[in-house]
Design goal:
CATH architecture: Alpha-Beta Barrel
Mean pLDDT: 97
CATH class: Alpha Beta
Radius of gyration: 19 Å
Oligomer: single chain
Distance between the termini: 11 Å
CATH topology: TIM Barrel
Number of domains: 1
CATH superfamily: Luciferase-like domain
Helix content: 40-55%
Shape: globular
Order of helices and strands: EHEHEEHEHHEEEHEHEHHEHEH
Number of helices: 11
Structural class: alpha/beta
Number of strands: 12
Length: 345
């Protein structure tokens, strides 16, 4: 693993509250996400990933448009999705949108493809949820063909075939950096290796070291498929940074509780508890929450243990306010990042 670990942020554009506890208009949330991306660039972070959702508690349904707005106000930071729900989109259009983003940003675009943990996009765009697996597999197969930027001849069962058709715009430099986002499925890990694509592990519950077998599976599968064994692995995990551990946890907890319970009611989860929150915030949990020193140590521990090249902190947490997110991004870039690199050097 390189000691120069890339550090980024992810956001789903959660609809946050104003000072009176009322939800902000989604349009204002979108403008705030752009401001967060600009700040992330200013404080030296390497990446911002913007998620795609189609529900009222998340403002972003078109990540590429938000990323293009960020691109116009930044110079260095890489820009990607977190994730693009490929199963309910068209692979050709996804490539075109990110190739366009790559062009306007001067080669800074990335895409993280996934099946998505929410299913609202399937009925919205007329896809059969019963074909969840088949849709992703077929569309990923087409995307990897389009990504080669050569005339495409391709036949599938769920989408119209292509016969020697070219897809534009072409990238100026090389291939579009394309990750596969996975939650914990070994089959998804092997699929990423099969296509020779970097792996992004979404660690949203349980200790990071629980994912070590998946990292090892990926590297072994790369070798077995004859792919580039040096392809990177990244981690996406939620968290929050404040001046002290106590401040970070006390600020985050009510928003984390409300968000977890809201989604949990849809999925049959038990209610969130403070004890569980405290466990996830500890060394063996998925929450990277605390002071800059605490978060830096946990990131370095994860990077060393899994051998990763990228760590993305999911900075948005339910209704947690924009002012808190901006302060956390500032601390991440100015205090956490230097400390992480020091710990890994």
């Amino acid at each position: 693993m390189s000691t120069k670990l890339e550090l980024g942020i992810d956001t789903f554009g959660d609809v946050t509250n104003d000072a009176d506890g009322q939800p902000l208009p989604q349009a204002q949330v979108l403008r705030n996400v752009v401001a967060e991306g600009v700040l992330a660039d200013q404080v030296g972070l390497d990446f911002i990933g913007v998620g795609e959702h189609h529900r009222k508690d998340f403002a972003v349904s078109a990540p590429e448009v938000v990323l293009a707005a960020i691109a116009g106000q930044t110079e260095r930071i890489h820009l990607g999705s977190a994730v693009t729900v490929l199963s309910s989109d068209d692979p050709v259009r996804v490539f075109q949108r990110f190739a366009t983003l790559d062009g306007v940003s001067g080669g800074r675009a990335e895409v993280i493809l996934g099946r998505g943990s929410f299913i609202e996009s399937f009925p919205l765009f007329g896809y059969d949820l019963g074909q969840y697996e088949e849709l992703f597999e077929e569309k990923l197969n087409l995307f990897t063909e389009v990504r080669k930027q050569e005339p495409v001849s391709w036949t599938g069962a769920l989408r119209a075939s292509l016969d020697g058709q070219s897809v534009y715009p072409h990238l100026e430099n090389g291939l579009l950096k394309t990750w596969i986002g996975v939650g914990g499925s070994p089959e998804s890990v092997v699929r990423a290796a099969h296509y020779g694509l970097p792996l992004m592990l979404a660690i949203i519950g349980g200790g990071p070291m629980r994912f070590k077998p998946l990292a090892e599976l990926y590297r072994n599968a790369l070798e077995q498929f004859g792919q580039d064994a040096s392809l990177p692995i990244g981690v996406h995990s939620p968290g929050f940074i404040a001046a002290t551990d106590e401040e970070a946890k006390e600020t985050l907890w009510p928003h984390y509780e409300a968000m977890t319970n809201r989604i949990g009611r849809e999925r049959g989860w038990p209610p969130a508890t403070r004890a569980r929150f405290e466990h996830e915030a500890g060394e063996d949990g998925a929450l990277f929450v605390g002071s800059p020193e605490t978060v830096a140590k946990k990131i370095a521990y994860t990077a060393n243990g899994l051998g990763i090249e990228r760590f993305d902190l999911k900075i948005s947490n339910g209704t947690l306010g924009h002012d808190h997110l901006m302060k956390a991004i500032e601390l991440y870039g100015t205090e956490v990042a230097p400390r992480v690199h020091e710990l890994l050097s």
